[in-house]
Design brief:
By secondary structure, the protein is mostly beta strands. The chain contains 1 helix and 11 strands. The strands form 2 sheets. Strands 1-6-5-4-3-7 form a 6-stranded antiparallel β-sheet. The longest helix has 4 residues, at 84-87. The radius of gyration is 14 Å and the shape is globular. It starts with 7 loop residues before the first strand and ends with a strand.
Length: 135
């Protein structure tokens, strides 16, 4: 079921800017991980920003994808939800920009900090992902 205010797939490209994120407060950030292989990194990131229903983003064979379906899938035996907002200490921070470029999706905050979703091995576009914080 799709939320009535959901936009669906917003971006699927090598480069894009999520202009609607600018100036929004980050309310929640959830990393979806495979419980059978936690070293694989996040499979998908759910993001909740002030005034916007749940969105999600991920990398797929070097292409960035940003979607807004208005809801999140519940945890089950194939996925574990981790609180990345707490893990990276970014809950409640204001977003300056969100962009996809060079096989990375970057959230930049007004503080100058960045969270980057990227491939662990930049040459393996079907490989494991990681979320890193850049001060």
């Amino acid at each position: 079921m799709t939320h009535k205010n959901a936009a669906g797939r917003m971006f699927q490209d090598l480069t894009f800017n999520v202009k609607s994120a600018k100036g929004k407060k980050l309310e929640q950030l959830i990393g979806v991980e495979d419980p059978e292989n936690p070293g694989r990194g996040p499979i998908l990131i759910y993001i909740k920003m002030e005034g916007i229903s749940w969105s999600q983003y991920y990398l797929d064979v070097c292409i960035g994808v940003w979607e807004n379906w208005g809801e999140i899938e519940p945890e089950d035996e194939t996925s574990v939800h981790r609180n990345y907002a707490a893990k990276f200490d970014v809950e409640g921070k204001m977003i300056r920009s969100v962009q996809c470029k060079d096989s990375e999706i970057t959230l930049e905050f007004e503080t100058g900090e960045k969270l980057v979703l990227k491939y662990k091995d930049p040459d393996d576009w079907d490989g494991d992902l990681e979320m890193v914080k850049v001060p």
